C-alpha cells in the first residue's frame, strides 16, 4: 500500500469516527479513550489491524463463519507462551476440521499482534510440495519481505540460499513477527522454515515438528463441530434463524457427522439434502 492510499484510508476512517459521534451525544470515559486511541497519530486501530492482516496474506473470514472461541483462545494462549522467543505452535487435526480458519481467527486480534508480534504476521499457504515447489514458496516469501530490495535484487537460487535469506530478513527486518505456515505435509518442508523465528502452523500430522528445534505447543482440533454448531452453520448458509429450521435439519446434521465451519461443498450437500427431504 503506497503513502497516498494509506493517507486516504486514515482520513476516511477518521471521518467515519467523527460522523458517528454527534456533539449532543454523551459518551463515557471508556468510549472517549477508545476514540482517542483511534485518532492518535491519524492511525485508526481497526484499519491498522486490517492492513497488517492484508499485507501479511491472512485469509478473510469465510462467508459462512461460526465462532469457536474456546479453540481460538487456546491457540492465542499458546502464542503468548512463545513470549517473543523462537518456537512452534501447531494446530493439528484431520482434513476439513477448520484448522486454517482457526489460525486466521487467532491472529485477528489487535492486542495479540501489538503485544507479541509488532513486526507483523506472514501467511504462507504451503500444501504438499516437491523441491521446486518449495523453492518457489520460499522465493515468494523472501520477495514479499524484501519489497524494497534492500538485501538483494535477485531471488535465491536454491532452498539453502532461500533459507539463509529468510533467516536474515526476519532477524533484521521482522524480528518480532509471526510466520504462519498453512497445511504442512512433510517434516523436510518444515525444516526449510526452521530459522529461529516464531511459527504457527496447521497440519494433519502432528509429528512434522519432531525434527525441528525450540519450544513446541500443540492444539488438537476435533473433526466434528457437534449438533448445535452444525445447525448454526446450516442456518447461516440458508439464511434462516436456527429456531426456524425444519425438523429434517436435525437429521441432516446427524447424517453428515463431520461438518467443517467453512467447507462450501459440505454446506451445498446439506442444502441439497434439505431440499430433497
TrEMBL record:
NB-ARC domain span: 69-242
Record-linked Pfam families: NB-ARC
GO cellular component labels: cytosol
InterPro entries: NB-ARC (IPR002182), P-loop_NTPase (IPR027417)
GO molecular function, one term: ADP binding
Source species, domain of life: Eukaryota
GO biological process assignments: apoptotic process
Protein name: NB-ARC domain-containing protein
Protein source organism: Microcebus murinus
Lineage: Eukaryota, Metazoa, Chordata, Craniata, Vertebrata
